[in-house]
Structures are given as C-alpha cells and as structure tokens.
Records
---
Amino acid sequence: MKRIYLDYAATTPMRSEVVEAMLPYFTEVFGNPSTIYSYGQEAKEAIEESRSKIARLIKAQEEEIVFTGSGTEADNLALTGIIYASEGKKDHIITSAVEHHAVSETTKFLEKRRYKISYLPVDEYGLVNPDDVKKALTAKTVLISVMHANNEVGTIEPIKEIGRIAREAKVYFHTDAVQAVGHIGVDVKELGVDLLSISAHKLYGPKGVGALYIRKGTRIAPLMHGGEQEKRRRAGTENVPGIVGLGVAAELALEEIEEEAGRLRQLRDRLVEGLKERIKHIHFNGHPVKRLPNNVNICVEYVEGESMVLNLDLEGICVSTGSACTSSNLEPSHVLSSMGLPPELAHGSLRFTLGKWTTNEDINRVLEVLPRIVAKLRAMSPLLKSRR
C-alpha cells in the first residue's frame, strides 16, 4: 500500500540535495568553527555561506541572522531576550490568542515571573485586528509578537499593518514565521519586523536547527551562556551539518517558491471543492483567501478528529488533527476555540498540509477514502444519535 503524507506543516522530509550537501560536514569538514586552523575555518566558511543564503531568502543582511537549535528556541530567544534586555524598564508584551506553543508557553513562563502579557482575540478566521494591537499598547510595552501564518488553520496575519503600528510606537516586533518562510515570499523590511523565527525542518531541511533574524540595532539578551558563538547571542558549538542543510534548503526554496506555491494552491483548492461535494456538515477553518497555499483545515460534525486520523492511517494517509506539537492533548485546539468554535465541533478537526511530493493522485485518494470513513464513523457516533 502506498503511503500518502499530508502533514507537511508538522515536518518535511529532507530533500536529497540537502542531505548530500550535509554529508561532508559529518566526517570530512568536521572542525570546530571557533578554531583558527584550516579544519575549523572551513567549517566557519560553510556557516557564513549558509547565513548568506538565509538572509537572501528573507531579504535581510547576513549579520542579522543568528543560528539556533530550532524554531522554538528562536521564539524563546526573541521573547525572553528582548524583555530581559529591557532590564525592568519595560515589562509588557502583546501577543495573540492563537500563537504556537513555542510563543504562548514562553509568555506563560514570563507571566509567572511577573511580566505583563496581553493576549489579543482573533476573529472567526483567526485574524488579529491591528486596531486591537494599537489599543493594547502602553508606556511599558517592549514587544509585540504575532505569528506570520497560523500552523493549524493557515491564516496569514496582517503583519505589515502591525509592523507599522510597532514602528510608530517604537516597540520591537517579532513574528514566528516558521510556517511562512520558504512557502510564501517573506521580506523583513517590507513586513517591518525586528525579529523573525525560522525552522529548517519546515522547509525540507534537517531537524535540530533554526534561525532568528534580529534587525541590526536590536537590543537582545542571550538565552544561553558560554562561548562567544553567534556574536555572543547564542553560545554553544554550532551544528555545522544542520546549518549547511538549512542554507541549501533556503537556497532551493528561493528558486522554486513562486512556482511551487501556485502548484500547491491548485491542489489545495481541488481538495476543498472535492470535500465540499462529498461530505455534508463540514466546516472549513481559517481565512478563505488570506491563507497559506498548502493548508486545508476542516471540522466534520458528529465525528472525532482522532478517529478520522487513525482510520486514514489504516488507509495509508497521514494527516493530523491540528498542531503536531500537541496532537496527543485531548483538549480542543486553542486556535479553533479562540476562533469561536464550540468544543464538540473543534474535536472533529482535521488538518491537511500539502507539500513538494503531493500529487493529484494523492488528492483523489483522499476524496475517495475520507467520505467513506466519515460515513462509517457517523453510523457509530453517539453525537449524531443524540441529535436524532
């Protein structure tokens, strides 16, 4: 049985070009980049080349890219680094109710240490209202953090508008762009952000490496302490193979982004229309237009999302019920709940995220299999029986 992978928002397989580029840095070019002899300098040169490739992808300067161990670490560094650097002068962060847990758990951590956090609501599409950002500003606000594109429902937030508000207020602005970079065009100057998080494994690179764009002149305290790597902003010997892999993935994304986004948009729209035709009592989540080209998030009435995921897996189709980072949690998605969906509907959610190896045949297979699974589960559903 052919397996069909439709959970590219959770992680992506590494491209063969990425693997091939990384291999020499495990065995041949293995030097510590902090050393001054040839082995170390060759490794350092590879790091700087990757830094340049990532900067080109997001239209930044090379010196503004700091390598981290993940997108999660990049988010943590952005939030804690900015507020700690403020040294008590400012203690307020504005964020949204639909952030990835890498941001929301960090803000909860900071709240326990008596920092002030404002969580902005979203509308039924998951969009933050820029006017709410403006209203939440105080004299003590040091940072605004709003994600670029939502990992569950694919909604693209009004980052440019929020960026303008942040600049006018002279407040730092961070965006978690883990789901956006490499999939849609990202220009840090156009967006008006001071900090932007990236994860390699979301754009066909390796796990265990990420990056944080830090605009030149931004005051930030390090999260980790030790050596002087990354200009003292991120201590620890660099993951050279991983950084090389991220660089190659970024280079390939820049070359292909427009064409691939168009291809995925067509597949996504075929999936949406096919599901509408074949399954009754189905809801589509996220903004219908302002959304990632590869994301389809649905709620199916009278059926549990986990049951659909397991039944699809038996048919060789891999999807999720929401964020892969919390898919084992029985609580309904905080994103869907914040968008106003009742718990019984939010529990029936499925997320399809398409990618480089998704084909028309894969979409056909989902449209063949899922209606049958839904019909079977509804026939057994106590939720449906209670409505009759």
---
Amino acid sequence: MERIRIPVIAGDGTGEDIWSASREVFEEAVLKTTGGTKQIEWIPVTAGLKALDAGNVLLPQETVDAILESTIALKGPLTTPVGGGFRSVNVYLRQRFDLYVCMRPIRWFKGLPSPLVNPQAVDMVIFRENTEDLYRGIEWKGGTAEAKTVIDFLRNVMGVEVDPDSGIGIKPMSPAGTRRFVRWAIDWTIKAARRGITIVHKGNIMKYTEGAFREWAYETAREFDDLSAEGAAGKIPVNDRIADNMFMQVIARPGDYDVLLCPNLNGDYLSDACAALIGGLGVAPGANIGADVAIFEPTHGSAPKYAGRDMVNPTSFILSGAMLFDHIGMGETASAIRRAVEETIQAGIMTYDLARQVRDGKAVRCSEYGEAVVRRLSVSGASTETQGR
C-alpha cells in the first residue's frame, strides 16, 4: 500500500470543525477511488495562534520541515489581528515557501444561492500574484521614526509632499515576479483547455506598477504560440480590463470571463467578490503554489465565535483538498470529491451560511454535511483540471 504523507495545519477558530468533517471525506474518497491501494498519512503540524500558545512562535521549524519534506500541505484558517498584533501568518507562509501563485476557482453548483439571474454562467479561475504588491507588508506606522525617515526622503530627495503623520506602505512589483506568475497561469490555462485570459489591473492610475504588470503580462503571453491578443482563430484570446470595471463585468457578464490574471491586492478583492456570486467564501477553495511547495486552504477566516459549535461550512476545505489531489496526480479522487459535493448541495443539504440564503432552507451541522458528502462518493471519470469544467 502506498502511503501519501500530507502535513495538516487544522487552523484557528473553526478550523478543527471543518478539518474533522473534511478528513472523513478525503479518507473515504481515497479508499473508494484507489481500491485501498493508497492511504493518507496525516502529519499534524501547527502555525498561528496554536503555535504561539504552545511555543511562543508563529511558524515552528518542525512545521516548515514537514512541509518542505512532503512538498504539499493542507491548511485551515489562521487568525490575523486587525490593526495591530502580529502580521499575517498566511502571508508569511507564502513568503517563506515562495508561493507565488494563488489560485481561486469560482464555479457555481446547482442549488447554491446566488444574486445572479443566470449563475450557471459563473465558471472562472482567478490567478493572483502572491508575493509582491502591497501584500509584501513593507509599511511603517504613522508618527514613527521609520515613517518620518521615508517621508523626509520623499520630500527632500523626490520632491513629493506627504502629510508628516501619514502611515507609509510600499507597492513593489517586478518584471521577474510578474512573468514567472503569468507563465505558470498560462501553462495551466493551456493544459486545462480554458476559453480565454483577462489581465486585470489599475494601470490607468498606477502606471509604473499595475500598468507595468499589464505590459509584462502581455509580453509573457507573446511567448506562447497557443495565445493571441489579436483574436487569431484557433488561439486562446488574451485581453485586459481595468480593475474597477472588472468588478462590474463579473457581475453583469460573468459568462464572458474565464481565467483572470491579477496583481496581489486586486486579486484578493476580486476573488472574494466573485465568491459572493456562488454562495460565499464557504464554498470557494484556494491554493498557494510555488516551484517546490504547494499549500491548499479554505479561503475564509477562522470565525472564532463559531469555534466548536459544529456549524460552519466545510465545503471550501473539502474542495481545496480536491485541488491538492489534482496537484499530486490523483484526478479521479479529486473528481469524486467534487461530484459528491455537488450532489449534496443539489439535494438541499447545506450548512447555515447557505441555508439562510435559500427560501425554506434548512441547515445541517458541519459534521452532518461531511457525512452527507461521504455517502455520495463514487467513482467515475478523472479530473482534467484543478476545478472541473
């Protein structure tokens, strides 16, 4: 029997609830689709608040070592304080392992609530550059000596006037960082036989960062014979949209858009907004991928007020696990999981976050939802991409 070693960071808040429900789905799916020839060996590791409480460090070395050895991991939601405290552990993980691609599939399942008249048109994959932009966390609090030094430099050397009490943040975006991200996303798009690529940016205002992102993305796209910015027949079309207009487009005309390439901050905003089109973050999976390591995670927060109440939606965690199985070449397992989730939702079985959006919706517990998905697991066909089309 082949053993698949997968480190797991269950996460803070509701992490244990959704992990418990998801684990049963993963184990049953592997059993059903491999006939017992493969088995998962879960490696529990910690990060965030649990790690801080246990050893006064946010990311223990044993967690880093386990992830590097396996090259993959599942991660639950980690709490990030707002306005103070420690910096985001999620961002630190991306930087520590150089996870430069964030992948967020957005696909509507029949039975999911949606504000759209025709939600079946929603089938997009949002790629977000994951290591640059304002998310680098290069910033200084207003009134500090560090902020004053930067402001003095801007005023005295660059001739730029800034309020002396301002907080300061830096938005670095590089050709190398953009191009490696765009190449990865284009490679995936071609292999998955998707319909088109849209570069999302705010280059009309931020010309030398987001405008440059647009130009570097187009330059990289020209390296691929399968793509065309001129609409050539038989080629995957490439175009671009201003970020604020893109928000309108995905609501008004979601069927016109397929693969979106975004800078870090805009990709964060846009992927969360698109999740609202398919029921919310509770059903939106995610992956952070680098050259050597990939970490798969639900896209929502830790919701500490619901911790231990067996209420929250594990679908995002479950579908993120399906992405992991695709990543390691177990497409049949991934397909079985997605199919079981879709059938469960179509049967009207959903947690409170979805049930409250549906007329006469009746909520089940997190654990009950996981059990319902397990009951619907079956084997038929293999997945051809990380979020089936």
---
Amino acid sequence: MTYMKILLLLMFCTVLPMQAQQMKKLTDLKDFEARLLQEAKNIESIESNFTQIKYLDVFDEKITSKGTFYYKKSNKICMDYAQPMNYLIVINNNQLKIVSDGKKSIMDLHSNKMMNQMQDMLTACMVGDLSNMSPGYALEYFEDAHYYLIQIKPVSKAVKAYINQIQIYLDKKDMSVHKLRLSETATNYTEYEFSDKKFNSLKDEQSLRYASWLLLLFILLSCSHRVTGEATALPPILQAEAQSQKYNLQLDFMKHHFSGMLIVRQMPDNEIRILGSTYFGLSLFDFSLHRDTFIVNSCIEPMRKKKMLKILETDFKNLFLKSEKARIKKKSSTFEQRISGKGFGKTVFTLSGFVNGQAEKVQIKHPLIRLRIQLDKLNINNP
C-alpha cells in the first residue's frame, strides 16, 4: 500500500495542541459513547469551513491552508482546498478520488489490511461509533468544561512509523468534531479547526453531485500546458533563500500520482533544506544539500529505494546547485530547456514563468523511466 493512501485517510481523523494533562480523565465512558452515538444518528450531513496548520520544527514555521469540508452519511466526504492552491479530495464509500493540477487519481480504500484499519478509524470519527475501532489503536478519553478529547495512539509498528498520536476534540454542545491534531513526531504536527458548521443542510444526493461536479470542474480548469546545447557550468535552476520558498509539487511515476508542497530554505550554515509534504500535512521526505553532499534525513518507505534516492539527489542538485554536467538545449525569452545525462539517466528540465529572471515553473522529466516532477511556485506568506 502506498504511503499516500494512508495519509488521505488520516487527514480526516486528525488536530489541536491542547494537552491531555490539562484535562481530566473521563470516568463515565458509557454515557459518553451513548451520547456520541445518539448525536451522530441525528446528523445526515455536515458542511463547514476548515483551517489547517502544518508546523515544521526544522524551520520553526507554520503553513496554513483553508477550504470547505462536506460530509454526507454513508461515508461521502469532500475536502475542497482553496488556499494556498486548489486541491480536491472526495471519498465515496470505498473509493477515494483526488484532483490536483488537472490530474485525477482513484484509489481503493480496502486494498489491504492497513487500509481497513484506517477505514475503521474514519468511520468511527464521522459516525460516532467507537466500538468498531480497530484493535490496532489504543484510545484514552479526557474532558474539560467545553470539550471531550479522544487520544488515539497506534499499536501497529507500520502505522507508528508515520504517526505518533492523533487527538480528536469534540464540542460538548453538539458532539461535533471541533479540532483535530495529528502528530508525526513530538514536535511536527498538523492541525485542523472546523468553523461555521451547518448540519443537515445538504439535500439528498446534493453532496455527491456537488463532489462530482467539482471533480469535472477541477479537471477542466486546472489542466496544465507544456511549454543545440551549451556545455558550460550552469547556475542553479532555483535559488534557495533564507526565507522558505514554497512550490506546488506534482510527481508522476509509472501509473502513480503524488501531490503536495515542496518547501526549501537555505539554513545559516549554507545547508539547503528540502522538505516534501502532502497538503494535508504529513511529510514525504526531508533532504539536505551541504555543498555537494546529499543527506537523507527522512523519507517515506515507497520512495526510500537506493535508485529512487539517487535520481532525486541528481534532480535536486541540478535544481539548487551549479551544474557542470547539464547543458542548455533550447532557450527563449519565455522558457529554457536543459538536458542532463543520457540513456536511462537522461533528464529534461523545462523552465518557464520567469519573474525577475527566476523560473516559477519547472518540469523535470525522465523519459525512459516514466518519471515526471512538476514544480509551481506558491507566492504565499504564512504567519
């Protein structure tokens, strides 16, 4: 199973930095579960705004995303991201659909044992029935005057590799999810806060039709277009700076599509730190470039293959360091094409969208291994 599939499910069950130590242990668990189940029975649909905050401890920086959340009973969910870019996720029963940059991906949520566990968690969170939670998670319950807290810790080593713990805060007024927090480590986390909630406002089948319409609209509106060598040392394609630079990241390998955000910063010791993260907050990789040395700080298992890491090392060196092996194939006032390597190691870099001499769009293609990476600069400032 791909790491991306796990992330897409976990995003719906994640959020807030209140400490359980500040809340008291819940003593009447049966009453809590009965009320949660009763309130859930009265909910046919939910529509709300959400704010997502991803905290990166290495940069001491928060990245904010915003959008609209839709839920319809029987596991119909839509997450419509509006900031920092348009990104759509739809769950309809056992199918998950993602639309980003004009590309639609469809995944089966019941493809294996771990996915079934995640599906159990998702169902428990949304319909209020915690009795069906997988035994792969340990649950603790707390409360204060305003909220209940369900603290979930994975038991499975496979899930522990990605998730430290999950916290779900329920509003005591209506038992709805108020905030969620997913902690990858003790210091890296993603938070969601839901506001302006509307209950039972979506008419029958309206949410599913809306989701289908959004999928079509995203595909129509966000489809991207594409745009004799010089042998000399070429300057970096992208310039790492002391302030974080953020790029929309699209990665296609064979039949698989991944999307998220690339965050790059030049550290005080001239190290270039390169982080890849999904838009819903979980890390894909964390690399460092120090002079000509490439360091893998962390990387998800599907990408942590020797050959794949070597390809990524070469690509990121071409992006952020001077290159004596690449050459300019074509160049005009609006785009530039560079070629590096040959045979299976051949890489084509296409630069466009120049602003003040810097490319804001970069496409990296490995023709013979069917690997494509697309980077589009995001001009956003986060608090």
---
Amino acid sequence: MSSNIKVLQVIPRLGIGGAETGCYDIAHYLPENNCKSFIVTSGGELLKFIDKKKVKLIRLPVHSKNPLLILINSIILVGIILFFNISIVHARSRAPAWSCLLATKLTRRKFVTTFHGTYNFSGKLKKIYNSVMVRSDLIIAGSNFIFSHIKDNYSEFLKFKKKFLVIFRGINVDYFDPTTKLESEEKKLLEKWAIDKEKKIILMPGRLTSWKGQELFIEAINLVKIELGYEAFHAVILGNDQGRDLYKKKLIRLTEQYRLTNQIKFIDSCNDMALAYKVSDIVVSASIEPEAFGRVAVEAQSMKRLVIASNIGGSNETIEDEKTGFLFESGDAVSLSKKIIRAVTMDEISIKSIGEEGRKNIIKKFNVEKMCFSTYSEYKRLLN
C-alpha cells in the first residue's frame, strides 16, 4: 500500500515557522518510505531547500483569502489530484483548506488538516471560516492544548464520526545538537553581535509582535538589572519586525527609558538558530498569549539550554517545570524576573543537569522522526 500513497500538502507559504518546517519535514520523509510527495504553495524561504528530485513542487496563489481565487485554486487542485492520482490532500492553513475541501469532495480523495493555532474567531462568520480545519477526514492537533481548544470551540463541527488526534510537532534534534557547533563559530557570532561572553547571555528569539511579550521581557530585564546590577548579563532580542516598525520603535524607547541600551541588543536575524542558542546561557519565551506549540522552548531544550517560558499553551506540555526548564506566571514581569535571576545565579552543575534533562525530554517526545512516522502511519490507516 505505502508505495501507492501519493500525498499532496498545501500551505500558503513555505516560510520558517512551525507549520512550514513540519510540511517540509513530512515532504522529505515520505519519499524515504516509497511514497510520492507533492507540495502546493505560493512561495517562501524554504523553497530553495526543497529536494526537487524527491518532492514535486507546484506554485499556486494559495495564500490568498479572495473567494474567487480560492475557487479557482480548487479547480486547479482538482486537475492536479487527477493528473498525479493523489491519494491524500493535507492542508495546513484555512484559505487553502477551503480549496482542498472542495477539490477532495469532487475527486473523492481523503482530506487531512493540521490545526496549527487557536485562530481568532471574533464573530460567527470568522468561526465558520475557521471550521474548515475540522471538516476533514483526519484532524491533527499539534498539541494537547490545541486538541482541547478544538473540542471546546468547534464541537458542533465534530458531530460526525471523524478521526481526531494529537501529533506533537517535532524538531531535528541532530541539527539542534550542541556538540555540532565549533568554538570558532561561537566566537565569530559573538563578535558580530558585539557581546562579551564573560557575562551571562539571555536570549529572547521570535518575531517582533506584541503577543510574543518583548515589552514584558524588557520590563523583567529592568528588574533583573536593579537586583543584580548592569554587569551580570547581556540580553538579546532576536527577531525581525516584519514591517511592524512602530512596535520596534516602542521597544527601543522602553529600553532607553530603563537605561538598558548597553544591556539589550536588538538583532534582526540569525541564519543559524542552533548557534544562537549555543552562545546563550538562558533562553526566554515570554508570550502573553498561548503558543500552540512553542518551538523556541523545544529547540533550546534540544540545545541543552536553560529555558524560561510563560505557563500557558504548549509550553506547559514541552517543559517539565523545575526539571527541564522554568515556567513563570504569564504576563507577570516580576515572576519572569525572579526566574531569570534564579537562572543567572544558579550553579553550573544545576544548569548542566537541567540542560541534559531538557535534551532527553525533546529526543523522547518532540523529535522530527517521531512526528513524521506518526503522520505517515495515520496516512496509511486512512487509506485502509
């Protein structure tokens, strides 16, 4: 059966987010198991890394929410499904999912969706729009938090007998492995960032948007400075504003207001996130809204770094509090500052122990091989 499976994944863009890397990983896993792999997308940074010998790539404007384009895309998808004799269509976002729903109904193919986030539903129409993600033959939730969110908010769409389960996202633990990074690479990156390794380095990665909690982080760093002094640490806010220049200016003003310009560095991007984690001592995820999964906390644990994350959403599942990292009270700068102070002043043996436990945790539960195998297994069950 497996040699006959042909899977078409449809995603708006192949950027560098969690949904996109999951799509990329599955796409390259399938050919290794004698399956045919296809991706329909509008573009994105990951396109250049696709192995064209293994994965058939088709460009369509599936990022668009325009109803006419959604309809046109569905008609084109029908042609693609029939021409390549696709077995399963797997949608990873709402707009393309509507095109996929119509195309799979017309071609009588199996339809899979992965619910990657909580999705805003401020009104009834918005909720109906979101509901396409639970109108498939197989609904995959990326965490127990998302599973509960779907059950609590979309129960009316789950009345019919459907397969609904959790498959945790996974990361490449071979890439996020601290032993693969050379000391010379670390030194070069620190020179680029103009940071002194003699001090503790506190890293906060993530795109610059208010719900990621950069303001809260700066407030907490100010409290750490008051308690420990200027010389105890460096902090790095690593992320692009993606056009939100007003928000970045607000963060810079807040940094200036607290007289932290020498302690906090703003870095737009880093091409090697594993190296960014490696040069850091502490990694913070301060989201004030729930993360569906919390990729930063998972990657940092894999790199044996001490992680501090807010106690909401996926972080509650990916971090074992006090064992593989620390959880703080979401939205509370004082709570975050206390955890940072504890981490900065902690002895090296305790830090190493938490790092070791963190990597064990990720290898056991959140590695990419496990995610890919579980997804592939569900594909096979769907066709049996």
